[in-house]
Amino acid sequence: LYKIRPKRTRPQALLFLCMILLLIVLHTSYMIYSLAPQYVMYGSQKYLVQSQAPSTDPVPRNVTFSTTKICDADAPEDQCIVTRTYLFLHKFWFFSTIYYFGNWAFIGAFLIGLVVSCCRGKKSVIEGEVEADDSDLSDDEYVH
């Protein structure tokens, strides 16, 4: 809709650009629950697992090894703590229902918009709204 040029960008273009960037960040933070549920649930937590070493010696010894594992649904509850956002989304059925149907509403709106934009002919959105200083000829006036 607008040209972005040094010292010649219209304020409406900058506001529109900021709005688009904010919507991208909002959508990314919204979809992170679907894209990386393991990370949302536990983050980067790890826990220790104690295991006995198999002994081939005739004298029995208590040798234990500890290894670290990434927290998952099978981890002990006392060693891995779920994040607050996971609790908020899964403990209260109201918010998880809104999130679930919000995902489907986004997919539906995207598909409807895709079909509509593919079926309609190309038409200028800003026809008759472009001012003289926004035309292609105005770039000639700008000195580098």
From TrEMBL:
The chain crosses the membrane at residues 12-33, 92-116. InterPro entries: LMBD1_LysCbl_Transport. Keywords: Membrane, Transmembrane, Transmembrane helix. The keyword Transmembrane applies. Coiled coil: none annotated. It comes from the Eukaryota. This is Lysosomal cobalamin transporter. It comes from Ilyodon furcidens (goldbreast splitfin). The gene is LMBRD1_1.
